[in-house]
Amino acid sequence: MSLFFFLLLWFYVSHALPPPRGFYLNCGSSSPTKLNEINYTPDQEFITVGNTTTIKQKDLLPILSTLRYFPDKSSRKHCYNFLVAENSKYLVRTTYYYGNFDGKNNPPVFDQIVGGTKWSVVNTTEDYAKGQSSYYEIIVGVPGKRLSVCLAKNANTVSSPFISALDVQSLENPMYNSTDLGLYKLSLIARNSFGGDGEMISYPDDQYNRLWQPFSDQKLTTLTSKSSIKPSDFWNIPPSKAFVEGFTATKGKPLELLWPPFPLPATRYYIALYFQDNRSPSPSSWRAFDVSINGVSFSRNLNVSTNGVMVYSGQWPLSDQTKITLTPAKDASMEAVINAGEVFQVIPLGGTTNIIDATALEDLLESIKEPPVDWSGDPCLPLANSWTGVTCSKEKITRVISLNLTNRGLSGSLSPTINTMTALKDLWMGKNKLTGPIPDLSPMTKLETLHLEDNQFSGAIPESLAQLPNLRTLSLKNNRFQGTIPIALLQKKGLTIQASPENMPSTNTTGQIRVANN
Ligand SMILES: *[C@@H]1O[C@H](CO)[C@@H](O)[C@H](O)[C@H]1NC(C)=O
Ligand SMILES: *[C@@H]1O[C@H](CO)[C@@H](O)[C@H](O)[C@H]1NC(C)=O
Ligand SMILES: *[C@@H]1O[C@H](CO)[C@@H](O)[C@H](O)[C@H]1NC(C)=O
Ligand SMILES: *[C@@H]1O[C@H](CO)[C@@H](O)[C@H](O)[C@H]1NC(C)=O
Ligand SMILES: *[C@@H]1O[C@H](CO)[C@@H](O)[C@H](O)[C@H]1NC(C)=O
Ligand SMILES: *[C@@H]1O[C@H](CO)[C@@H](O)[C@H](O)[C@H]1NC(C)=O
Fold it and tell me: Segment Disordered: which positions (predicted)?
């Protein structure tokens, strides 16, 4: 996927506007900084892993001069976590400037993940070679209260993933609402203001801090608008500044625009195009035209007034180079015009983790000390980046089927709600320093193997384990259990029990009990 970059120099503005709503993190920094009137804060409140460093290069924007990187190779993902409003919509922007922070002269390539969905590969090589930073944007719906943004190694990652800045910008309900964000995410391909010659539009011109890159085309005529539109007339609330300039064509000729200016992978895209008649309202001449994309009709008889208009498609197939053609209506007296456009790749959601399983793991995370450092973000998804020790099913609503934290140096105890993970087949917690009783596991009817050996569990060995229909291995050696193994367990068919001598019935001191299948 292509990248978009901005120059290291940013223009400064001074308007007295309310600050935008969201989180703006200057990753790896220890003090706040300001960019475009937005306060960027240090990031350590939102992440517990990674190391920080400063790039020694003059004239760098403050948000690019520090970064957080993740040298831990065993970690399956490295996550930022945000508490957000329920059922809300956010624009997430990640910014990367490598700056040879690791002295390897080779920017790492890695994955970025939002919620449980793999978002994209991050490859800043080309931008870095040009002395530019890279950024990526995605629009996401958050059904619950948690939003996580994670980086992870992939097959091509040879050094530490890193991040320079992270924006989580709140959006209004009508924005991009033709896409069901409960099913899809929108990953930015291009957002351009046409005919502009240098200045990027951002906050405060765009109150949602979207970046509108200027886009010029020598073959097209640029025009400038006298009037200004009302952003709230449009569902996407575009900045009026994006309409100030636009492209037009020679009289009577169709306007042809090769945009986005690079080939695209064949898939579905959200496309929004913005138009405005730049003249004073006229009763006798109008800008009326058809819009087609790669020869397919996109919008017919568009009659563009001074108030402006947006046309969009939520799922439009594109591949390779895109050509937008505006053909003036037969009786139109004026040429066609186009002012701005946005294209997003439509990314299906990667599924969701069963909420009860996710909650049970969150409870466990609270009750054990020193859990694996990657126990953050979505516990199951993407499946290749589940929490260490957690294995999940391939269903659309995925379930935890195995939990294996053998020999991880854990202390603390097992939370009682672990028994709500009713799809779990294997629970392996051996060789740790866990204390407290074995919770009631009787609802876990799928459980086949239970390993609690070499810990400091105490209390009685629950008789209710005998009710687990599929349990075949029960390993309890070297704990502090009181009393002997209940008879019902000893008599359970097909169950192999390993226990310490002190918990054996008096007739059996071998340390192993095998109850054979008759
Ligand atoms: C990263 O930080 C950890 C913990 O603070 C430290 O042990 C480790 O040495 C650091 N790694 C590097 C490469 O600086
Ligand atoms: C990263 O991008 C560079 C420059 O476009 C390319 O040569 C390289 O193959 C990419 N790396 C990976 C792992 O995709
Ligand atoms: C999107 O928002 C607009 C403005 O609130 C509303 O009129 C429209 O019906 C919404 N569309 C969808 C698909 O929800
Ligand atoms: C465009 O709109 C104007 C004003 O509403 C109308 O008079 C005109 O007929 C329309 N032109 C076309 C081609 O639809
Ligand atoms: C759990 O992890 C241990 C240690 O890594 C391994 O020996 C064991 O086979 C694993 N159990 C399962 C069910 O995968
Ligand atoms: C005691 O252990 C032996 C083998 O170690 C086994 O054959 C026997 O069935 C056990 N006794 C009881 C009562 O489970």
Answer: 499-518
Q: Kindly give the pairing relationship between strand 323-328 and strand 255-258.
A: antiparallel
Chain segment 298-318, per-residue pLDDT in tens: 999 999 999 999 999 999 999
Does any ligand 6 atom lie closer than 6 A to the CB of residue 512? yes
Supply the pLDDT for residue 284.
78
pLDDT tens-digit profile of 177-190? Answer: 999 999 999 999 99
**How many Å lie between the centroid of ligand 6 and the Cα of residue 513?**
5
Asked, for residue 398, whether it belongs to a domain, the answer is yes
Nearest-CA residue for ligand 5 atom 3 is 406
- Domain assignment present for 179: no
CB 518 within 8 A of CB 491: no
Tokens 């053998």 correspond to what residue? Answer: 406
Residues 435 and 287 in one domain: no
At 191-209, the pLDDT tens digits run: 999 997 778 999 999 999 9
Token code pair at residue 464: 């209710």
Can you give the residue range of the structural domain that contains 16?
4-171
In angstroms, the CA 171 to CA 376 distance is 25
pLDDT of residue 11: 42
Exposure string over 4-31, b if 16+ CB within 10 A, otherwise e: bbbeeeeeeeeeeeeebbbbbbbbbbee
355: part of which helix (H) or strand (E)?
helix 355-367
Residues 506, 388 share a domain: yes
Burial of 251 from C-beta contacts in 10 A (0-12 / 13-18 / 19+): exposed
pLDDT in the model for residue 495: 94
Query: What is the CA(285)–ligand 4 centre distance, in A?
Result: 8
Same domain, 224 and 368: no
- Is residue 178 in some structural domain? no
76 and 147 share one domain: yes
Alpha carbons 324 and 256: distance in angstroms, whole number: 6
Q: Whose CA is nearest to atom 7 of ligand 4?
A: 283
For residue 288, the ligand 4 atom closest to its alpha carbon is 13
- Which residue in 247, 92, 260, 236 sits closest to 166, CA to CA? 92
Question: Residue of the nearest CA to atom 10 in ligand 5?
Answer: 404
Which pLDDT score is estimated for 506?
66
Collect the ranges in the chain with pLDDT lower than 70. 1-19, 227, 506-518
Q: Are residues 356 and 336 in the same domain?
A: no
Phi-psi region of 354 (alpha: psi -120 to 50; beta: other; left: phi over 0): beta
Question: Do the beta carbons of residue 255 and residue 194 sit within 8 Å?
Answer: no
